[in-house]
Amino acid sequence: MAKIVKKTKKRRIKIEGIATLFLVFSLCSVLFSSLFIRTQKNHLTMQIEDIRSECATLKDANSQLNIEIQNLVSKDRVYEIASSNGLSQDTANVINVGNGD
Q: Is the entire prediction scored with pTM above 0.70?
């Protein structure tokens, strides 16, 4: 009997297979990158909102401090402290200075 010789064909990757593999890889890359970008955008948006709320809090604190400063530098307060320490205002020694007119 004659031997049957089987010829084995080497499997070659066809161009369609490579294109399909590239397409699948590209789709996965687009999906993961869009998810990553969306996550980063949300994270940055949250940081921006935190900074804005902190700025608003600081503006409120600054306005309260400005009001307190205005109360502390008022003439009435100075006169009150002076009179409580036994000082009095001598109107003969008061000189009004204009704004250079």
A: no
